[in-house]
């Protein structure tokens, strides 16, 4: 299976919009996984039916049995996260599920319950293709584990349907969700923009890709907003032997397409459409 992972060092570079467009161009020949689970928004462009919902459980939260509790205060004293109030109520947002309160409770009144922190979906999109995506609960952690679950489900779906290409929208940054997104990648597409922070974070995320010894190419979005930094990015790509897949100019129609729930190539026929299609063809050749 060919697994294309699209990531960026920072948010706002156009990563998800491009990934959704590639998914649109791939149509029924690709399965798409939205692994940006902390800010999942691929559904805004691919319009899935949120089919086959599955509860996702991860981590624990303490629960106090008020009937068994003797109000000794030991749990409150040891909780470094201030998750237990004076009336022995546990805040699920503050509780880290460490179990120390349970350990010190002389009345054995505290249990650790596994948390339902989100939902996973295997959906049909407006193209009748498959999108595997998830909704993480507010304040929930363990998003790296949820990314792994989304990717594994997407691989299973692709194998079951005999589809050979998986497109993954990864998280921005360099944290655990990004590392989980990169696992098993055949090719990595780096999306950046010509700003000081964009260039800085491109170098950081590429170091991660390099550490995993993965092949990578780069797309410079909105390249014409700062030609000086664009030139610096191009020099960096050349020095690191990173394939320069494409450079896209800034165009307000890009944003207008998103506000209408459309990918770039659906919105209107203009030069950028052809550039995006050419970049998709080039990525397919590279893998």
Please give a structural write-up.
With 287 residues, the chain is of the alpha/beta class. The protein has two domains: 2-47 and 125-286, P-loop containing nucleotide triphosphate hydrolases (Rossmann fold); 58-116, Alpha-Beta Plaits (2-Layer Sandwich), CATH 3.30.70.20. The chain has helices at 15-26, 43-46, 74-78, 100-104, 143-161, 176-182, 196-211, 227-239, 252-259, 264-267, 271-286; strands at residues 2-7, 30-34, 54-64, 110-124, 130-136, 165-169, 187-192, 216-221, 243-248. The chain has a nine-stranded mixed beta sheet with strand order 3-4-5-2-6-1-7-8-9, with helices on both faces. Helix 5 (143-161) runs parallel beside helix 6 (176-182). The protein starts with a strand and ends with a helix. The mean pLDDT is 92.
What would a concise description of this structure say?
The chain has helices at residues 15-26, 43-46, 74-78, 100-104, 143-161, 176-182, 196-211, 227-239, 252-259, 264-267, 271-286, and strands at residues 2-7, 30-34, 54-64, 110-124, 130-136, 165-169, 187-192, 216-221, 243-248.
